[in-house]
């Protein structure tokens, strides 16, 4: 083999490479497209598909009853994601498509535009190059099950569906105050969302058919059609309450469309927990390790194990631990790297806590090619930490941890032999917490993709949040800066 | 099985898509290029060129690799391997073992091995 030509130091293992470059997704998307379009010349088709490079382009539908704020949400998403917005109005009045005339004729005759015509219009518009490159946001489409089926059979499959909902009474009230800006097509409201610009105020017009009867007719139709749509798209659909301040609604919508759906790509979890003492790192790590079979590594424990095993490195570390000094970073790093590169860690993945504590350690970790793919920061108020730690007791015989109020010892016998670790006395706790918060800021900047967890909750709630972050692919952060 | 699913399966089989994707994945993992997307485009362009007989297919194994493989099979260094070993080698490389003209006996030397494997590889790409 061509061994000498290999670069040195050795390239990261195959699995890590595939994961980092998302090879699975690359090939999966290609297969998906092939299956949808079934081209006669797959090779050429694949080349064209790869050149388009649009795996991350948004494909979103924003649905909801009239006056729920679809237009506002869709326009805002467009600005952020740089995608193309398509709605009934844009299809009828802005675009020049071959079928537009036909659709307009229906409209002039005050007839309903048939579903098939809508579907064809949408399909024609979406096959334009801008929609393929930048992605699209369909507003108010599909309206009913038939349209959804038609879109699906022509290969238009949205990745995210946002459904806004609000009580009917709220919608009817909102509808009566609706105002349109004929220039930018933005929607305003006389009381809730009045534009600050005088110029805009003047040119606002009252949309037609604001009567309550018309509105309730539309609402009824929407409610009749929605279950059919829900049934088709339930896996990618998210309901968002529209009866909130618009900023909240929009931020929820954005968070949802940035999430990615679970994929079947092989994944080795390499998890890092950072948090102040008493935030539940060791408990959460134990739960994760138990459920997913990853290797649970506590840095302090690892050092003590090395000392107890009387390994060469352990002998070097021993004097520091015995005298209560912090162990030098390079020694810790050596022991840690050896453990994390062991076969069980490489194949099953790991969850590490207690290291890194500051940015230098984080950089060292990166230098030795140890890259966590999920990083969590646990946050909780200082009082809760003191409350948790100052009453922590340890059973010297079994090593089990108890808490005088939250988890009292089961029998008086055990109760009698419980001891408190001197580290857990109140003044010591405060010192440790202060040291943690001094260093964590830089570390938070260092790990950009980290998740922040409110650790001041029930352990199982925290566990569920962590779990969902681990299982789902990282949300895509590609945002157009405004 | 739904009609659509059957159609899709037929389509995949007709164009040998699963095999193609396997090969592409193997190429990617072996070369570990900096930009996988561009690399794939190049690989597919080469398949296309090869189809028009204008260039080389993107091979995973070159001549040196094949020689090394032969040496591994020929443990005692007698200069030839048995047809059974040859068949196993083809399987390892993911090539078809149908219509082999060797019987159960006979010896395959290094040169024959190289030539045959290359021919097989060419055949396997030529279907696209």
TrEMBL record, chain A:
It comes from Grus japonensis (Japanese crane). GO terms for molecular function: kinase activity; nucleotide binding. This is Adenylate kinase 8. The keyword DNA-binding does not apply. Belongs to the adenylate kinase family. SUPFAM superfamilies: Microbial and mitochondrial ADK, insert 'zinc finger' domain, P-loop containing nucleoside triphosphate hydrolases. InterPro entries: Adenylat/UMP-CMP_kin, ADK_active_lid_dom_sf, P-loop_NTPase. Keywords: Kinase, Nucleotide-binding, Transferase. HAMAP family: Adenylate_kinase_Adk. The keyword Transferase applies.
From TrEMBL, chain B:
InterPro entries: DD_EFCAB10, EF-hand-dom_pair, EF_EFCAB10_C, EF_hand_dom, EFC10. Signal peptide: none annotated. It holds the Pfam family EF_EFCAB10_C. PROSITE patterns: EF_HAND_2. Residues 61-96 form the EF-hand domain. Gene3D superfamilies: cAMP-dependent protein kinase regulatory subunit, dimerization-anchoring domain. SUPFAM superfamilies: Dimerization-anchoring domain of cAMP-dependent PK regulatory subunit (SSF47391), EF-hand (SSF47473). It comes from the Eukaryota. This is EF-hand calcium-binding domain-containing protein 10. The lineage of its organism: Eukaryota, Metazoa, Chordata, Craniata, Vertebrata.
